[in-house]
């Protein structure tokens, strides 16, 4: 299978909404808690028009179907002086998993966030997304005790962050192939 990445467009909104909802259901997350603002998710493209935010979709080349996405934006509730962004809405349909796409997306997000002048990237997650947590840990995200900013994700109990520039560490550490294969 062949995939490509491109910036989100308004016509991608229904597909991304479907992907997020499907992944939330697949992993047994409470939809009413996890999808905090359905209106925002249904119009995700408009949430990433700011010059200091980005969101990309992953497209299955053969069919043109959007099969995943991810991005970053300024951490809600922080000032312009705060150089922290939030990793946002990183979701993949089953057919997009196991091809190394999560690693490619993470590399793009981290590189572009740093290029936009952010110094730290933060995320919130739920325990049910264990493979995603392993992915974040492989990219040197550290667990932190409390939430940052005002994301509105009341159901999330896992908080992680990392500096965007890591001089002394590899960008990411290898993880078990059974968790998240990186070959296409």
Plain-language structure description:
The protein has helices at residues 13-26, 31-34, 38-42, 44-47, 101-115, 130-138, and strands at 3-7, 54-60, 65-74, 84-92, 120-125, 142-144, 158-163. Strand 4 (84-92), helix 5 (101-115) and strand 5 form a beta-alpha-beta unit. A 7-stranded mixed β-sheet has the order 1-2-3-4-5-7-6. With 184 residues, it is of the alpha+beta class. It contains 6 helices and 7 strands, in the order βααααβββαβαββ. The N and C termini lie close together (8 Å).
Largest sheet, in brief, is:
7 strands, mixed
Categorize the overall geometry. globular
What is the domain tally? 1
Protein structure class: alpha+beta
Keywords, please?
disordered C terminus; seven-stranded mixed sheet; 6 helices; Aminopeptidase; 28% helix; alpha+beta; 184 residues
């Amino acid at each position: 299978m062949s995939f490509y990445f491109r910036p989100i467009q308004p016509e991608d909104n229904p597909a991304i909404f479907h992907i997020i909802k499907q992944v939330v259901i697949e992993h047994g997350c409470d939809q009413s808690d996890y999808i905090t603002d359905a209106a925002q998710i249904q119009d995700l493209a408009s949430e990433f028009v700011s010059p200091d935010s980005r969101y990309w979709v992953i497209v299955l080349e053969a069919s043109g179907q959007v099969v995943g996405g991810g991005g970053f934006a300024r951490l809600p509730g922080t000032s312009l002086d705060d150089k922290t962004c939030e990793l946002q809405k990183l979701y993949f349909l089953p057919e997009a998993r196991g091809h190394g796409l999560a690693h490619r997306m993470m590399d793009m997000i981290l590189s572009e966030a740093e290029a936009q002048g952010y110094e730290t990237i933060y995320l919130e997650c739920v325990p049910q997304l264990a493979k995603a947590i392993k992915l974040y840990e492989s990219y040197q995200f550290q667990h932190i005790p409390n939430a940052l900013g005002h994301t509105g994700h009341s159901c999330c109990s896992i908080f992680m962050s990392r500096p965007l520039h890591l001089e002394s560490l590899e960008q990411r550490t290898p993880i078990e192939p059974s968790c998240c294969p990186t070959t296409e």
